[in-house]
Amino acid sequence: MEISFQINGENRSVQVEDENTPLLWVVRDVLDLKGTKFGCGKAACGACTLHVDGEAVRSCSYAVKFAKGKNIVTIEGLGTPERPHPVQQAWVEEIVPQCGYCQPGFMMATAALLSKNDHPTDEEIDANIINVCRCATYYRMRKAIHRAAELTRETNLQSTENS
Amino acid sequence: MAKKRVSRRKFLVRGALGTVGVLALGTYVFRGSIRRVIAKKLNSADAPYMGDTSTPLIWFEITDDNQIILYSPKVEMGQGTFTGLAQLAAEELEVDVSQIKVVHAPSATGNMDGFATGGSTSISALWVPLRELAATMREMLLIKAAEKWKVDRDKIRFSEGSFYLGENTMTFAEVTNGVSEWEIPDTPELKPTSEMKWVGKPVPRVDLKDKVFGAPIFGMDASLPNMLFGSVVRPSKIGSTFKNATFSEAEKMPGVIKIVLEKDFVGVVAKSYQEAENAKLAIEVEWETGEDWNTSAIKSMLTVGKGKPFTIQKEGDVEDVFESTEVIVSEYWSPIGAHAQLEPNGALAHVEEDKATIYMSTQVVKITRDEIADRLGKDKNQVNIVPTFLGGGFGRRLHTPNGIQAALMSKAVGRPVKCFFSRKEEFQNDTFRPPTHHVLKARLNDIGAIEAFEHNVSSGDVAFGSPMVPSIAEPILGADLGAWRGGMVQYGAIPNYQAVSWRIKLPFATSWWRSLGLLANTFAIESFMDELAVKTGKDPAQFRLEHIQKDDRGDRLSSVIKAVVEKSNYKDAVVKERAMGFAASTDASTPCAQVVEVSITDEEIKVHKVFCAMDPGLVVNPDQVRAQCEGAIIMGMSAALFEKMEVEKGELTPTIYGPYQMALMKHAPKEIDITLLQGSETPGAVGEPPLGPIGAAIANAVFRLTGKRLREMPLQHYLNS
Ligand code: FES
Ligand code: FES
């Protein structure tokens, strides 16, 4: 069957044999966007986190049929080196990644958090950012999340001033 | 001087370097006490680079736009090696780090480390060879530039990848234009450390952008046109051997291309990952299995006194002291640990008539290649391993039979096949960190000094049984160098001490896990040292200092202890319901001391702050060394507090994150304070040493809070049991 959605600003239609196929595999293997990672396939690690209509979703456990007509954003669509998302900007400033495999998932989870709360406390970070990083880069991630929040507030302020 | 014919794109550099084998193989004369000499050497020396730098291999390539590609024989698994190597090369090439692009050397370049990437040796091993190679290349270019300009080379200046002569400029790339023969000069003198521009600078990771913007750099991300997906049926019971399989149902399932039956496995190749996984469920496999093992059976196997003992360290005569006086004895245990690296093992293989290409995350490029060539019946040179960035290594990618499986499936269907583990398969087919049992004994004299000290460790295999340590090396080495890592007594002022390693063969695969035996051995030794300090009523850090010998190694250990005490303002007391815990370790030649600040609320151990002082010798990249400390501390904390695999009815469990509890954001300390000392002119081990003290430091803090001595990891689990 054919399923259409918007992904990273583009309208796409994909042919799938089985509408229960996790969105993760459609994104990775059909659309060839490899930034969204497979870590566990059971919604237990967060490596596959992307946005569906602005919400952080663990795409390994989200059937593609639910994505019909929705707006999906992956790490590739979050920002680019030329126009980084505040989260990516902060991640670069703090030099967060080690192996890097978990990082897109963390950045997507953080971006979703900041879109709702641009001044999270440590407790709110602990409660919301529950992905797994085996290299244990949590210490820098926390710093980067606070920094990203700061950058987000600056941008929000500018856009209110401009409007 | 010999002339080498090399093409411009394949820029070959020949380094005039000798290498020594770390395992000193090839002879059986090393026996008995000589083994201890080797053990001692291995414990203190940094491993040399094991690859071949004596024959022309591809190390560098210069592109048209004057970028220098550095083919790294070491893989990047997060430890920051690529960045360090770029800094070393930039130093001698006199270029900006940004002009160097570090890539994994495919095995076809010949540039392979015969050993592995692991053991915290990448930078220390290449510290001299890589700079010599870079300096040699710079000289080769300079000679050519001089020839082209027909001037004396002394007249030519160079910087940032270009040569200058008066008004004239020639880039490195322009120099290589039209050159087909290169003269290889003698290795030039290397720049002294004091004149270095890049070494010692916190250069941002060279792979930072790729990793922040989601570039497809991992083994899991590899893809080829026409690619299919493979899936192998893996056993859930330990000690299973594949017998046979029936798969007539599976063959008919949607998307299935072929069921591949080999002598040791069965796999399915399908059009998509999901279809391969679905079809796999319909395959019935006959396994030959052994006993129904459980955790307590494993634990009782693993007991000091059982198996083969080997004395790895001996000074004075502990037995003599222990015979005649009262002895303090304590026992400690550590559990089975999983690697749990985020990227599952996998490979993309494309096997063709006369060649095979395999893209994968591996820590042992050469071994992977040789094993695959062997199984395919191909010449080694027909097999090209293209290493990718690793989504975590930690020792999990030192055994790579999955590469063979992907290759055989690709061969069977004549198309590229990608095949990787599910998370459950990862957890059940891991090469685990072996569980350990420790018996410690000591005798204190009248003035509270240790007169005799003994550490016994019983461990499953770490290095033994791995393809990196051929079985002929085992009788030479005597004891498993991985199992006893960190297991030696570092307090050389004690008059009588010894360390004994007991080898137990467990019924499941055990191997390297970041820092090898360091975490468990240090947990046992440093908890016991704390017990002794408490008995004498002395300050625990001061108590350690009193037992350190006066030599270079001892002085460096004393310095990190003093530094961390000062930084943390260490107090042997409970203040505002928080207590500090202290521990120190020496791994390879890197001493590390840590102080943690801990509280217990609602029966949960909470680590608030960690102070860490470490002396890895010369620091190539302080930011990356700090990153390694932060990561190792939290990973060590995770293992020490939470992680534990169990064996139930012959199966390893749990099989998913969560039930296999690991440290998350909420557990990570809010403050990590790192002090780096540089007690040596050359770089030493970084990635593993800071994992040593953390477990013991936390347990020692918990003792101060509760009066309870936790003798078994994971500590959170045993706090209330
Ligand atoms: S892969 Fe989706 S949560 Fe782990
Ligand atoms: S950076 Fe390696 S798992 Fe997070």
Automatic annotation (TrEMBL), chain A:
- Where is the chain membrane-spanning? none
Q: Where is the 2Fe-2S ferredoxin-type domain?
A: 1-78
- Full protein name: (2Fe-2S)-binding protein
Task: Tell me where on the tree of life, at the top rank, the source sits.
Answer: Bacteria
Q: Does the keyword Iron-sulfur apply?
A: yes
Q: Which InterPro entries match?
A: 2Fe-2S-bd, 2Fe-2S-bd_dom_sf, 2Fe-2S_ferredoxin-like_sf, 2Fe-2S_ferredoxin-type, 2Fe2S_fd_BS, Beta-grasp_dom_sf, Diverse_Oxidoreductases
| Lineage, opening ranks | Bacteria, Pseudomonadati, Bacteroidota, Flavobacteriia, Flavobacteriales
- Read off the Pfam families from this record: Fer2 (PF00111), Fer2_2 (PF01799)
Name the keywords, alphabetized: 2Fe-2S, Iron, Iron-sulfur, Metal-binding, Oxidoreductase
Q: Which CDD domains match?
A: fer2 (cd00207)
Query: Which Gene Ontology molecular function entries are recorded, alphabetically?
Result: 2 iron, 2 sulfur cluster binding; metal ion binding; oxidoreductase activity
Which Gene3D superfamilies is this protein grouped with? 3.10.20.30, [2Fe-2S]-binding domain (1.10.150.120)
Automatic annotation (TrEMBL), chain B:
Q: Which GO terms describe its molecular function?
A: oxidoreductase activity
What residue intervals traverse the membrane? Answer: none
SMART domains in the record: Ald_Xan_dh_C
What the entry lists under Pfam families is as follows: MoCoBD_1, MoCoBD_2
Q: Where in the numbering of this chain does the Aldehyde oxidase/xanthine dehydrogenase a/b hammerhead domain appear?
A: 213-291
Q: Which Gene3D superfamilies match?
A: Aldehyde oxidase/xanthine dehydrogenase, a/b hammerhead, Aldehyde oxidase/xanthine dehydrogenase, molybdopterin binding domain
PANTHER family linked to this entry: ALDEHYDE DEHYDROGENASE (PTHR47495)
Report what the protein is called. Answer: Xanthine dehydrogenase family protein molybdopterin-binding subunit
